[in-house]
TrEMBL record:
This is Protein Iojap-related, mitochondrial. InterPro entries: Iojap/RsfS/C7orf30, NT_sf. It is found in: Mitochondrion. Gene3D superfamilies: Beta Polymerase, domain 2. It comes from Spinacia oleracea (Spinach). Belongs to the Iojap/RsfS family.
Amino acid sequence: MLAALRSRAHSLSSPSLRQPWLWKLNQTSSLSSLTRDDYGRTEILKLDEIEKVLSEVRADDVKVLRVGDQCDLTDYMVFATGRSSWHVRNIAQALVYKAKQKQKEAKRMLLPSVEGEESGNWIVVDSGSVIVHALDEKARAYYDLESRWETGKPPAESSQELDTALVKVRRKNNSKKRVQPRT
């Protein structure tokens, strides 16, 4: 009897048996619409699907950079500009909707990770081997992410210019005198 209990405890020590939600995770039928890239990472959306969605929602100035040699997390970074915060949110929502439609018949959906939806100025959608940065025009010009990821190109701004740009400047008027209008 002791030997039977010992063998049962040994068989239950496998993590997949102790965690029932992992029982069907390794089956390919539940995630059949997803593919894997060359490194075994799951691709929720492929690059051509993302480009098609971005053209459908009329994202401006779409730029695709291959960053696989610089970064282990992803193969491509896509930068797209929205005309307003609503348009930037719409770009992210369209990508999530496409991922849902792609996995329509799956028993378990794997959705892309979305960050920054509250502000709407800069939203990042991580879909596995492709990371999409949807920015409004001001944020894209200010952060200039493309130049930071392109090889061989230094950033457009120096760190001193960035430090002075972040300083809040107020007009000094400590007295109770009225301010003279400038002519």
